[in-house]
Amino acid sequence: MSRPDFNLLVTLDVLLAEGNVTRAAKRLRLSSSAISRALARLRETTGDPLLVRAGRGLVPTPRALELRERVRQLVQDGEAVLRPAEKLNFKQIARIFTLRTSEGFVENFGPDLIARVGEEAPGMRLRFVQKPNKDSAPLRDGTVDLETGVVEKTTAPELRVQALFRDRYIGVVRKGHPLSKGKITPSRYAAGRHICVSREGLDRGPIDEALQPLGLEREIVTIVGGFSTALGLARASDLIATVPERHTGNLRAGMHTFPIPVSMPEFTVSMLWHPRLDADQAHRWLRGHIREICAVIR
């Protein structure tokens, strides 16, 4: 069975409203012959004359009268689907966005973001969930609306990505710690007692690989799953935390920081979302605020 031509619905809607081929042609900016051909196809498709001549005009058959409201509604619904979205009133919007972020992002950037959302869109709520892995499935299936992190080879290729800021690893200790005074050399840094941050519970990372060519090895005292936990431990002990600088700005207040004395490349923190949310006005608005907040140097 051949697929019906849905453009005929628009023609039928106008013909039923005008009751005249010439007026219908003028309204649709088509020739009268084109409208007549469309009417012939409509009659063939529906198996009904639909419109019959009465004097100079056309009058609808009972079948046409039966269809009139349904055709009008179908055309209106189609126009609504294809019409550009109206500008949202953010004061009235009620919506929950789920954001998946690494530990430290919420503590550092969350307060400003929540304050902006509360001021401009009081009915919008942000749900922050932990990021136990880099699996892209939550973005694909819609359980997560937006994610922040470092793009990896395993990141789903269809995801949209926008860079937020560049970051680097730094060392952090409590005020008064021995490493808060004097030059930090690789051997002095490695000789301290360290906290290893690993979501997977690993006891080695890129820093250990950078120390290895120098014949140095860190003493890993404990392993934790996030940066805020590492900083909490370092604040209350002589342990050394190694964390991203921009990612943890607020969390390091009152602590001593120093550059890592080994070569460590910078990395880019980005936000990621699924293409289906590209044109969503509320999602675009939220992305814009995240970009602005992350652009502020702390």
Q: How much beta, percentage-wise?
A: 15-25%
Can you give the helix content as a percent range? 25-40%
In total, how many beta strands? 12
Question: Strand sequence of the main sheet, in spatial order?
Answer: 4-3-5-12-6
Name the CATH homologous superfamily of the largest domain.
Answer: Periplasmic binding protein-like II
Structural class: alpha/beta
Assembly level: single chain
Q: What's the mean pLDDT score?
A: 90
Do you know the CATH architecture of the largest domain? Answer: 3-Layer(aba) Sandwich
N- to C-terminal separation?
Answer: 65 Å
Task: Describe the largest sheet.
Answer: 5 strands, mixed
Radius of gyration: 32 Å
Order of helices and strands: HHHEEHEHEHEEEHEHEHEEEH
Low-confidence stretches: none
Number of domains: 3
| Global shape | rod-shaped
What does this structure look like?
The structure is a single chain. By secondary structure, the chain is α/β, with parallel strands linked by helices. 38% of the residues lie in helices and 22% in strands. The protein folds into three domains: 7-82, Winged helix-like DNA-binding domain superfamily/Winged helix DNA-binding domain (Arc Repressor Mutant, subunit A, Orthogonal Bundle); 95-163 and 274-295, 3-Layer(aba) Sandwich (D-Maltodextrin-Binding Protein, domain 2); 169-265, Periplasmic binding protein-like II (D-Maltodextrin-Binding Protein, domain 2, 3-Layer(aba) Sandwich). It has a five-stranded mixed sheet, covered by helices on one side. Strands 9-8-10-7-11 form a five-stranded mixed sheet, with helices on one face. Strand 3 (95-101), helix 5 and strand 4 form a beta-alpha-beta unit. The radius of gyration is 32 Å and the shape is rod-shaped. It starts with 6 loop residues before the first helix and ends with a helix. The model has no long low-confidence stretch (mean pLDDT 90).
